[in-house]
UniProtKB/TrEMBL annotation:
This is Exocyst complex component 3. Pfam families: Sec6. The lineage of its organism: Eukaryota, Metazoa, Chordata, Craniata, Vertebrata. Belongs to the SEC6 family. InterPro entries: EXOC3/Sec6, EXOC3/Sec6_C. PANTHER family: EXOCYST COMPLEX COMPONENT 3, EXOCYST COMPLEX COMPONENT SEC6-RELATED.
Amino acid sequence: MKETDREAVATAVQRVAGMLQRPDQLEKVEQYRRREARKKASVEARLKAAIQSQLDGVRTGLSQLHTALSDVQDIQRSLADVSKDWRQSINTIESLRDVKDAVVRHSQLAAAVENLKNIFSVPEIVRETQDLIEQGELLQAHRKLMDLECSRDGLMYEQYRMDSGNARDMTLIHSYFGSTQGLSDELAKQLWVVLQRSLVTVRRDPTLLVSVVRIIEREEKIDRRILDRKKQTGFIPPGRPKNWKEKMFAILERTVTTRIEGTQADTRESDRMWLVRHLEIIRKCVLDDLIVARNLMVQCFPPRYQIFRSLLNVYHQALSTRMQELASEDLEANEIVSLLTWVLNTYTSAEMMGNVELAPEVDVGVLEPLLSPNVVSELLDTYMSTLTSNIIAWLRKALETDKKDWVKETEPEADQDGYYQTTLPAIVFQMFEQNLQVAAQISEDLKTKVLVLCLQQMNSFLSRYKEEVQLYREEHLRKRQHPHCYVQYMIALINNCQTLKESIVSLKRKYLQHDTEEGVSLSQPSMDGLLDAIAEEGCSSLLEEVFLDLEQHLNELMTKKWLLGSNAVDIICVTVEDYFNDFARIKKPYRKRMITEAHRRVVQEYLRAVLQKRISFRSAEERKEGAERMGREAEQLRFLFCKLASGFGEEMDGHCDTIVAVAEVIKLTDPSLLYLEVSTLVSKYPDIRDDHIGALLAVRGDASRDMKQTIIETLEQGPAQASPDYVPIFRDIAVPSLNVAKLLK
């Protein structure tokens, strides 16, 4: 109690603290006190009412217990009186045994007299029943059959009661009514025929189906009555129980199974689409049958039969069995897809079990799967394995077909923008699209797996593709006149790389729900790298073509012929421009790289010509003339490459400025300023080496040995640092057969 009081006080303190948080609330203390007093009074009143109610209930319970005790005592006295009377009447019952025996004999004789007419008319009733069965009058035939069975069963029961051990008389009765069992079997056959054709019968003659159901219902009632009598007497007539209701459902189940199996009209040998046709026929048949069952058959059966639910379960089980059989066959990849699509999607769709005409009785959400997860998994594994082999074969065949086009005498086709291309990307991604569309029909998970597979195989394929492009390039280098359209097809192969990159991105965007799905996004960088490598090799190969044609003219640079007025740079510009007119059919990302690389290499070759000491100027006039010519040609090259790059909206790198800077060193008239000019050159181009400086000073022809040595040694003491965005231009330029020591002499 003390703990409770402390908790109550703490709660009260908390409430008061909550009420009195601001000074102005002190004015309402009296108002709060009255409100709490009213609440306390209300709680006390409710508590008193509850206690009073409990007391009234206890008082009522005690009163009822007293009444029950009085009743039990009265019943106990009554039972004692009954027991006393029963003991006194035992002797009286024993004296009436003879009367009881007489009643039994009278009952037997009365039954015999009652059945005499039926006994004598048994042959006639048998004939009439047989005729009625043959005429299809099943209800009337069953009525007469019931009369025969009733007479037989009545006589046999009386004989069983009078002398159950007399087998001869029982056999005699059974023999006399022997045709009854045959009639019952014959009638049953007719019933089963009607039930086997129930879906047709219910449309044409529903009354016949109703008659069959009524007969089965009668037999079920007789079975129940006879089984109840067996529990009391131990007697059961021959042929009972018939269990026609159970047989009816068994017949329906066999009929459904046979109907589904009978829908296979073709085999793989006769029709490649045999499974698709088979599944479509099953779909139509099952849907039509269930619609008929829901709309018509339910009217012919008692509600407790739940005939539609029973038929639905029968059809579902039969379909499951059939699907298991099909799954166990050696199916091809397209057949596995057809089967899984039908099982996982079509079966529960609006085209079948989800049809509005079957709602709401059919809830696709509670239907068991036609194939177990293990079977589905095995089929998917088989499909993925087969698909992997097929994709590898398709890619190999596509590459072989594409390679045949590379050596054609005619130019490759162009797309709508005029870019050369081959059919390889379209063929490959059309194949991928088809397989992904098929996989998407089955499940999202399979679609993702197929996408991963396609990308993985694409990655492997690109390695083979790269090797074939290299072989194509090497074969051309051995025999430059073959193939005739090498440049055009190499352009197409470069464009294929860009098309493949775009197609991969498009494929992932279309068929990938989340970019972060495992195993998919990781494959993109490696494929981009491979495609860029293939394209760069192709671009390099095309540039090799250009520079093989330029080689003769590049060799004329910085020679006596050049100084006297060679048109080598004019030819170089015309040749490069002519080639790049053809290269205009290369897609922009790679064409831009080619222009940049061609620009760098032309300038580099020009500088190599300068540093190979093909000429050594003998006078200031020659140096001035050569430097001015170098400046003009640098502007000529700059104009060419700016013109080629004009379509990209960006300025070209200042590689041509390097020629101008070198020309300034050559042009310098005051040798005392040579160190300063060379220092400026080295600071602008940090990759320039000692041998380059030595060769450049040798070209001037006026630098003394001491001056050369001083300049080189001074520059070596403080090498310039290259900026991060600097593109090396001198690094790959070798000065053959010369070294610094020789240049200083």
